[in-house]
Amino acid sequence: MSSxxxxxxxxxxxxxxxxxxxxxxxxxxxYERVLGLQRVPVPFPHHGDEDGxxxxxxxxxxxxxxxxxxxxxxxxxxxxxxxxxxxxHVAFGVPARTDLDAWAHRLDDLGVAHSGVIDETNPIPYxxxxxxDPDNIQLEFxxxxx
Length: 146
Prior knowledge:
Elements: H1 24-35, E1 38-39, E2 44-45, E3 53-60, E4 65-72, E5 90-93, H2 97-109, E6 118-120, E7 126-132, E8 138-144
Parallel strand pairs: 5-8
Antiparallel strand pairs: 1-3, 2-3, 3-4, 6-7, 7-8
Protein name: VOC family protein
InterPro entries: Glyas_Bleomycin-R_OHBP_Dase (IPR029068), Glyas_Fos-R_dOase_dom (IPR004360), VOC_core (IPR037523)
Organism: Actinomycetospora aurantiaca
């Protein structure tokens, strides 16, 4: 794997993740409840399409995670499917393998279906918990052993 970090402009991490959802209020409530995110109290317009919908922004300022849930009035209403071109999944890193057990227990307590903790060694050692949001968008918690 080659890297050109010496000559490219700097990156500071991923700023936010913004899926289009079928019911922005239901999704916002789900992400607040499951991930413990805080809602920014004002909707964000779709710049260049202000009449077409809006976004609800949820944040965890302590960690720097932000999710912008987008509502489009002309949306198709289809559920997400990672086999179509577009988003496959989003993975949230955790600092320790034991955190995956804690997240699995939290998802159980909240009635959110999930894979349980999966430990893999190929192609590198990692562990993950896979679950889905109300629109079937695949989400993961992942710990990578280095």
